[in-house]
Specification:
The chain has 311 residues and is α+β, with helices and mostly antiparallel strands. It is built from ten helices and 13 strands. The chain has a six-stranded mixed β-sheet with strand order 1-11-2-3-10-9, sandwiched between helices. Helix 1 packs across helix 2 and helix 9 runs antiparallel to helix 10. The longest helix has 17 residues. The chain starts with a strand and ends with a helix. It binds zinc ion (ZN). The site of zinc ion has 6 residues, from loops.
Length: 311
Amino acid sequence: MIELRPDNFKKDNYNFITGICAGGMARMIAVDSKDAVSEALRIHNTSPVATAALGRTLTCAMLMSSGLKNDTDSVTLSIRGDGPLGVILAVSDRFGNVRGYCENPHVDLPLNKAGKLDVGTAVGGGVLTVIKDLGLKEPYSGTTELISGEIAEDVAYYFAASEQIPTAVAAGVLVGPADNDIPGYGVIAAGGYMIQLMPGADESLADEITARAASMPSVTTLLSAGASPEDICSDILRGLDFQVETRSYAGFKCNCSRERMEDGMKSLGYQELRNIYLEDKSAQTVCHFCNRTYTFNENDLWKLMASCFKK
Ligand SMILES: [Zn+2]
């Protein structure tokens, strides 16, 4: 069965694939996240290493969205390391549309010994937290330690340690010179995949999948060579009867709105709003995720103050 998601459907432009293999004993999700990561770079003006770290986090959040059922469900991936990047946060909706930010997006570090962007050092040691809002009274939340700060490894460890699901995860971002004559750098390729075993799957299948994932070239190598997420799935799972379940398009999408910002302002309470009204006559709030600015003038503040008394 192939589900075409009307909201997310762009003709001939699938970048998000989900499917099953080995008679339903494992599921695989793969995404080409170049659009989402490029948009994050544009919005947050991330340095190369921050682009890689935030990009991998956004990509993993996109992959983790595949288990969500309802339109209002979301999954949040928060990386809290003691490295210079600070907190990295990504939130995905059930379609894999993602938004996110990094506390210190302009951090610049020398390349590591392998000549690659040093994401592990930029993130540092700390914890990874996953919050799934499934519309229940309390969101589900799990936390594990960061084992390398390289993000994909940390997410795989989270699944093994916190959810007891054997999972192979890969996420990569290739940063390089921008296209054409534009000065600076851009996202050359970005993407990832996740393969999870279903309950009751044989241990030998886990070993087989782990070995296959380990022997693959990096995901950015594959994408730069022109492979689609679907190609990546069928290559890794060759001979394991991979069947596509959904094809869709996912990108960077913020869900902020003036209404949400008004709710945030109201939560300050009447006294605080009155102080702002008397001292500044106006207020501005900025969305962390997309940097959009919302301005509240004197009249708006007056209305917000009045609304504090409405039932
Ligand atoms: Zn926003």
